[in-house]
């Protein structure tokens, strides 16, 4: 493995004091980089909507066959124009759809290979299975995983793994591209580009199934890698990262010599999409000044769920400095449009109306109509879709109008203060389920409220029939179990304060953003995108029709239901870990042989970079036969099936985030 040599190399560079750069001929040239990230196994299109000249249009975006068709166009254009091109994936191909739940990594490898990627970063959700399966996925790929700050040499599951690389070097002569195997024998008279990869340095806290894999400091690794590459005469350097847009910006401010950062993790669709009724999500190809005050780094990211693809053109001068960096993200739409989200035949646009939408799209640079690649669509429909369709199970509700999940209030526009309409429903279901008599019999506790992190929820709730599989396979796919524990009101307030503050910056990863059931809060931002404070936190008694709100008391102890991932303190929910570090009365709820079983937690310890739950007796085994750990999904299925056959949002808001106006 290269990770150990890289560490040794970093020390050598530091001790040497200076590095002499070999004279490698470098001609001015422009590189095109096509990129995707956080596709999360969304092989089929995502149902969506946009505004065309003030008319709401319900359509579909993306999906792998549509991505494939666009990539083929980009590659054909590059060949025609003799243009240098790379196609990169910034990670999190895993998780997020029924396809992944059924086929796990095999389908991802199959379809990604057909796209002809040049490299992929290692995302946190790539660790959602186990390292043996991840190793199998990596080994089956026709392109490398590029992960410079990831050291797998200590984990026996990766013994002999040769497809996780610290960097990949490409030599370009126009459209002709070759991979350079020997960094000490670089080809002359060609333009050389190095791509290195960064994953989250706090990965064990985000993805608990990392085994014995080690994750090195992002900034130190990046700088030592850039210095090493430049010492070999490679001046054009790309960082392929899965650390989030806000962290990408911070990285560029701390590291000299990165020309382009192709990022992922924060699901940031960079660019101004107000022309289609969406938001301005921040500048695409933003230039961020390096610490030396001379050079700058260009930063891009392409959203989520295979809805869009980014394309950026980076021009270098003869010294390898960036002279221009420009491009944009493009949403990939189908050509069938409806007036309503349930997409009934009678609501389909007429030919004349469709033509008007097509004319509108033709004038926009950030949305395009493109047909799916027929070969890839056929393979999905015949090889993978039948098993997925079979797995969806019984209808549990009818959804009159689509219910939208967004991780953080304001993501859909400045006027939005309340965020997700899905998260409060899920939290409410967990409150309901935890207070069922059969559950209280196991826990011995009446629950006061529920808390949930936005990142555990993966989909909207689409209009129409809603099935069990929509819950288990798509919306709540992580097989998390519910935990009931006691927390002081002051701990809950600290949790809310910390997690909300962490998600205020533009481009911040918002998976940790908190929502609740039978609890509400208001948070006022005091410094735009940086700071704020809670102005109220209330606990609800009564019913949805007749709620009674009482202020949360700092010194009062409350019984709270949370999924086990957040109840352990993962993803920045650290106050909950701290509250259980010495003692816990938490009970984890799992279905074993059709019977609900409570596993008592003694405490939570920090072992290395991970939080380890210590049980009073036997620990749950989610791999055991007849054991169902996804009680978070079961809670929602029971709640909807028993109380909410017409599935609509709650009648009150649980989150109010008052932002400072910045424009």
Automatic annotation (TrEMBL):
Coiled-coil stretches: none
Key words, A-Z: Hydrolase, Nucleotide-binding, Signal
Domain 5'-Nucleotidase C-terminal, residue spans: 412-575
Pfam families assigned to the protein according to its UniProt record, in alphabetical order: 5_nucleotid_C (PF02872), Metallophos (PF00149)
InterPro entries in UniProt: 5'-Nucleotdase_C, 5'-Nucleotdase_C_sf, 5_nucleotidase/apyrase, Calcineurin-like_PHP, Metallo-depent_PP-like
Calcineurin-like phosphoesterase domain: residues covered: 32-268
Highest taxon in the source lineage: Bacteria
Gene3D superfamilies: 3.60.21.10, 5'-Nucleotidase, C-terminal domain
Signal keyword on record: yes
Family: Belongs to the 5'-nucleotidase family.
Protein name (record): Bifunctional metallophosphatase/5'-nucleotidase
Organism expressing this protein natively: Photobacterium piscicola
Source taxonomy: Bacteria, Pseudomonadati, Pseudomonadota, Gammaproteobacteria, Vibrionales
